[in-house]
Structures are given as structure tokens and as C-alpha cells.
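Quick one: C-alpha cells for this chain, please?
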Amino acid sequence: MSEYLRHNLSIRDDEDILRIIRRHWTTFFWDYFFLFLFVVGPFFLIVPLFRWGINGSIIFFALLCVGVFLALRTFVSWYFNALVITSVRVIDIDQRGFLERHVAEVAFTHMRSIAMQRKGIAQTLFRHGNLMVSHGEDELIARNIPDPHWALAIIEKSREHIQETSAKVGSRTL
């Protein structure tokens, strides 16, 4: 993934990727449920379906194709929805379906505030939530990331490092 990021997100050579954080696995519960239903379900019905002859075989393989499509869609959604924390900025990649992707980025120097939110029983039990980064008028929101406190701490530490580095460079030029 990091080579993909370096190539497609224009990550500079002097910029290091600190963390790549993907959505929490529990947020895909219904995807997993229907995936299981369409992949394993036809095998429970294999005898009655094959008794129907060619029509049953077509139904069996159509259900399997739907299952494979759901598996591919779930993988693409998991793999390409990511919060990338680099040494100078935060990049939020939001993959919606196969062909729609939104990429937003905020440099540490332009961040005004960072907050995390856990809402509901599922996010509390499974320790995932949303991370909000405000910059100017806009807000970057990374949804359903595992342990948003951890991501918040990494961003804060990196921001402090950037501020210390720029303060040292600023004092040397005076």
C-alpha cells in the first residue's frame, strides 16, 4: 500500500508514512453476513438446485458470482478506505464503491483542532470511533477507525515535533 500511496497521493521523498489506519472490522458486519450467505448458502442448497438441471446450476453459480462480487466490494472498501498519517500531514482516503474515491488532506501546520468521537454501544464495546480534524472552514472526518485515541496521540505527537522543528529553524535564522 505504501508504494501505491507514494505514487498516487504524491507523497514526497522527505515525507515518511507513520501509520495507515483502516476502518474497524466490525463496521463490515452486514457485508460479512451477506457474503457468508451468498458464498456458503448455495452449498447448503446444492442438491436441490442441481436436481433442477441447468436452471439450478445457473442459480447456483449466479449466487456464487454475487458472493464473489460482494467479497471483492468488501475488500476494496476495507483496503482503500484509510487514514494515512505522514510526518507532515494527514490524508483521508474515502473509497465509495469501485469507481468513486475522495481524498482530503490537511497539513499539521494548518490544523486548528483535533477531536475524537465514540457514539453508541457498538463503538464503545469494540473501541472504534470517528476522528475529526478541523482546518479553516472545513473538517476532515475519518469514520469508524480503531482506537481513535491512539490516532489522536500520534497526530498530536507529530504536530508537536513539526512545531519544535520549525521553532528551532526559526530561531537559527534570526
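Helices lie at 2-8, 29-44, 46-51, 54-80, 120-125, 148-173.
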